[in-house]
User: Fold this.
Amino acid sequence: MASLAGLLQLKGHRITGSDQAAYPPMSDLLRSLNIPITEPFSEKNLDPRPDLVVVGNAMSRGNVELEYVLDHRIPFTSLPQVIHEEFLPERESLVVAGTHGKTTTTSMLVWIYEVATKEHPELKPSFLIGGVAENFGTSFQLGGGRPFILEGDEYDTAFFDKGPKFMHYFPDALILTHVEFDHADIYSDLEAVKTAFKRLVNLVPRRGRIVAFDGTPNADECVSHAFCRVERYGFKADSHWRVEGLEHAGSESRWRVARENEPWAEFTMKMAGAHNVLNATAAAALAAGQGIAIDAIAEALATFRSVKRRLEVRAVVDGITIIDDFAHHPTAIRETLKALRASHAGARLWAILEPRSNTLRRNVFERELVDCLSLADRVVMAGVFKLESIPQNERLHPDAVVKALKAEGHDAVLLKDANEIVEAIVPELRSGDVVAILSNGGFDGIYDKLPLRLRELGATRGGQARCFQP
Assistant:
């Protein structure tokens, strides 16, 4: 929604917004654009009467502003519909979809196009991403070229349109990453998730192209009846775009890609993790198929700077590294911890998890949480965010996760909130530790509270506390 606000402002519209509690990085982005956000929701926020209200998909009946909009017949619409009507006509729609990796992959694809613009100005992309791409310092851009690159979200559109957002984007070319069960609040099971992705695949025209991950049978099934060309990417011997010779050196990754069993390109990227290499390969494959030169792709990946809240270093205090990662699913947590193991070999790794996404707050992945968190040396579980909003028989039991971790010999503890976590772990942290804070929300400001308490403790001990704030 913040990204859309920025795009609409670039088109000359006057934008205001409201939220219950806005938090970084999007609150910072809106502030930098001088787009006012009022908190909390109130009927007063709709005075003067707007010409159009864009209703976010988190809004449901009973919200005071939504009820006012309906009572007073103020025109309203959804985010995807505005994108479809305002920005996609006469443009080439390039969509990145999948359960995991779509924000990072979209950002990579956008940066590839941006680098290619140096030689081909007509490629200057427009884009909309669900995170802040660090190469741009923003999550959106209105470019002068035909490409419009979109993160295709499978979550529902609005209270009045329960279909996935990506069904409004009508891709000319599509990247499909992982397909797994997620968003347990709106999808009943894995079959329902696969049906959504199959419908997206069915929107790609015959002249279009799909670049799809080859590592899961779910993705196989979703693209099996596509009417367009499908190219697979991954580690398999028969992949159209095959990853070879993957090496990690600290936070740097190096690998080769074979195209249809022929050597094609060598890439270097300042990001760790096999999952990020797969994301980069998917972006490279789609860009190459759209005519982008290998040199531009290689330069873009070598200079790619990640996305806010994806393995983001928030602070380094007295040799303790604090990482912020947008964790919404056990698979994402597993890949994050594996990447940190690769980039910080030998470090003591902490995982601090707030079960906050609509999937993690439920008990559907209780066992999977134990498995992925076991990759850390120390595990801290927070209480479930807004537990009361989850039906009792569906609730995650973080105490059961901690108990299972302990039974398997892992160091784990359950603490109720950010304040209790900070006070408990700060005395235990030591130089060289890596602390991964895993949440898809604000986590009650722990990203600032933890380094602040570390600095305070260093000062009281007379130490030379050093803080790096990127």
Observations:
- The longest helix spans residues 274-289.
- The first strand starts at residue 17 and ends at 18.
- The chain is about 30% helix and 25% strand.
